[in-house]
Amino acid sequence: MRRKAGIVAALALAVWGLAAAAAADPVAVRFGRLITEHGSPVIDAVVVVDGDKIVSVGAGAQALPKGVAVVDLRPLTGLPGMIDAHVHMAYAWGRTPGTRPWTERLPTAVTVFLAQDNARRTLETGVTTVRDLGAGDGASFALRALIDRGAMIGPRMFVAGCGLHVSGPPSPSASPDPCRADGPAEVLRAARGQLAAGADWVKMFGSSGSGEDVTGFETFGLEEMQAAAAAAHRAGKKLAVHSYGPDGARDAVKAGADSVEHAVDVDDATLTEMARRGIFYVPTVDHNRYYADHAAEYGYDAAAVEGLRAYVARNLATLRRAVALHVRIAMGSDAVFSGFGENTEELGWFVKAGMTPAEALAAATAGGADLLGKSGALGVVAPGAFADLVAVDGDPERDLAALRQVRWVMKAGKVVVDKR
Q: All domains of the chain, ordered by start, with CATH?
């Protein structure tokens, strides 16, 4: 049996080695139509990929290099890999009997292992890059490292570690909370701690609000937010501020945050200042729709569902004003637990708020890349960009329903989804 297992393992390694070698060879990917986020769509497009980068974009048979393998995806529509700017990849529910998503307690290693499913489901939506805005015990750092090493298949991750928060009820855990902070000095310490651990972003909970709680009371004040912004910017990183209400959003903008998450009822003066400074709004409208639709799973009662749906309406109204005032918008699903796989449903709310489908798609591609400081490298199909490509049935620039028909996904030159 051991000898047989050894042979199987050797064969598996040999196959993996052949696949890796093949992935290193140039390949031409052909689409019936290609959305590049640079100009008009390309008909009968040919994208030549070498390694993890795109080397050329052309059209027709004349754009096919001689001797290069061709992946013919016609008549599917191609588009850049999308960016989900607000997820919690390590929020994995093992469905232990008698538990709800928020109440299950698992060892971090088990959580990281279970999060593979979240990563896979995210890729299947055509999202090849995520910004992870909060996970405890270093879980998001572990996921990023595993994906970067190729030990786990998943989207490219930009992570914030744990989110900075004010003191609350004593924790049942005996371990100190590295992200609990009260006052500017403690905020500076906590932010520096996450940056030293390898965070790409600093995340700050500037208000109450999560799950069925839609209160939005401001927690951190202006000086504390300024301390977090200073720590992040001094390190060449960025600050994201969670605020369910308008007060935290207003102070986040004054403090110099780079993105504001969720906020509703934001006044026009604050939105205008966001537009002037290029501060991103990541509204995450759909995540409360998700909670309401999955109320039984979470154990939420009718009153909680009513509150969630009322918040969605306020969220949409705020987004509508933000769009009209030309605030930069990025797509964030705030996906947790069973929400992965619904990552791009957020874009439907963008259209309801006044965007065209093409503008909504741009918010999930080039817009998300701008937020991450990766313009030209992510969110576009162009020479020199990472070879993140998605193929869908239909034309998402006319009807976003096409994004529910993802057939094929390439991330950094490697095919990670193939449902043809």
A: 23-80+380-418 (2.30.40.10), 82-372 (3.20.20.140)
